[in-house]
Amino acid sequence: SFEGRVEVYHDGKWGTICDDQWDDRDAEVVCRQLGLSGTPKALSWAHYGQGSGPILLDEVQCSGNELSLDQCKKSDWGQQNCDHIEDAGVSCDPFTGTDVQLCQSDAGTVRLAGGRSPSEGRVEVYYNGDWGTVCDDGWTDLGAQVVCRQLGFR
């Protein structure tokens, strides 16, 4: 449910994305667009199998901050020079750590709990099979920005 070949819907058709320029920044946008907060990893060379039908996007180059692939630099729809052996894939693995250090431990999947709305609450991380809280030692706006971004908020 958190990994596979990336397919996009455009002009009444589902199609694949060519892996030219495909990297973890593109994967980060796909994970965000799907509402997944795991560790984004781009996969190339039809890692999850070759698709069928049209190849709709090529040369996708996201900065990693976009909310959807539509906002990324890319070729025009349908303009590509690829075969399905180059279909792009993504893993948004919720069970691996990120590079962010929160209170001296690697943070995994993040959630907010106990808030009045989905966009606020106590920060909790999933690590080694359990949910736990994050201590506030050294907690700054920068840490909050990282969590908000990981959860798909601006």
UniProtKB/TrEMBL annotation:
- SMART domains named among the record's database cross-references: SR
GO CC field = membrane
Its localization reads: Membrane
Q: Which residues form the SRCR domain?
A: 1-93, 110-154
Ordered alphabetically, the record's keywords are:
Disulfide bond, Glycoprotein, Membrane, Repeat, Signal, Transmembrane, Transmembrane helix
Which Gene3D superfamilies has this protein been placed in? SRCR-like domain
Q: How does it sit in the membrane?
A: Single-pass membrane protein
Disulfide linkage: 18-82, 31-92, 62-72
Q: Do the record's keywords include Hydrolase?
A: no
Q: Is Glycoprotein one of the keywords UniProt gives this record?
A: yes
Q: What is this protein called?
A: NETR protein
Naturally occurring in which organism (per UniProt): Panurus biarmicus (Bearded tit)
Q: Which gene encodes it?
A: Prss12_0
